Amino acid sequence: MKGYDPIKLAEKLRPKMIDPENKKVLLAILAGTGQEKDLSKERFFENIFRSKIYTKPEDREFDYFRGEPAAVAALELGVSPEECNAAFLGQINGCNLNCWYCYVDRIANSANHKYGKFFSAEEYLNQFLAERRKFQSSANPDLKLNILRISGGEVFIVPEIIFWMVEAIEKARLENDLYVWVDSNLATGNSYWNHLSAEQRARIEHFRNLGVCVCYKGFDRETFYENTGAAPEFFDEQFRMHRRLVEEGLDVYSYLYPVTSSAKNLRGRLSLFMDRLREEVSEFAPLRMATPPIKVYGPTEKRLTPARKKALENQLEAMKIWKEELQKRYTREQLHMKPHDLPSR
Ligand code: SF4
Question: If both were cysteines, with which of 72, 114, 262, 276 could 340 make a disulfide (CB 3.0 to 4.6 Å apart)?
Fold first, then answer.
């Protein structure tokens, strides 16, 4: 297993994804991509922004996202969780991983300016506010927008957007009016610390309505390599970055898509991963993690192979094992708590 270095790739992509002088980042234009076809049931704004409905009616009994970010956003904003089931999001155009199951087309995820447009945090926020105004009094809670999500691509290649967004929201005095949800793939090493000053990071830390959602790209070195094509040793890097974000004082949640083409010793491998999370990140990190299934979208379908189809089948067994292993490690009371009720560290 060889693979590329995602941290070096992030630094290579970065100059094409940021305009520091004008405080802008490159967002993906989704019009004309395979992903656009998948958005027919979702709201799609200006060919760039879209809304993501977290729990769709067909998924309600499963609660794949363990109620977040809706529950934490609702708590902070004083509204019902149903009114936080939809997020408004833009996708940073450029990613330093190449996951086969990614729902974004590579052309809109490789800092390709043909499928990108530079946006400032103010412009991003204004677009959110304009769309929010249209349906905020609707009887359908899925049309209400209380969460502004910064997604990708990989946000932490250009972490300045997080600071600029906090700055823009505070300038507009909207800090108690919306919740910010930021995604990361945990494969950018020290980028957050290298590109933001201590003062900027402190402003982010003190911004109350902000959660970071990190996504593990495998549960061992083999699955990390199989999913991303990156060098397997960067699997270990994910725990380090996760821990560092938690130590930074951020409210960090996580995901794992438990796909694997090999079901061999699945319980042992998942148990080891869960215990590493407890030891290297925090005692409650597994309870602050969601394990939703990968769904096959247009761009994913084009990349399917027999091994990947097998990986999709195996994820259901892995999700079952994950729940069983949680039950061995935590009390009934802890298992019933919402992720945001458990300490980050
Ligand atoms: S890290 Fe996320 S955006 Fe990047 S390729 Fe993987 S799934 Fe896609």
Answer: 72
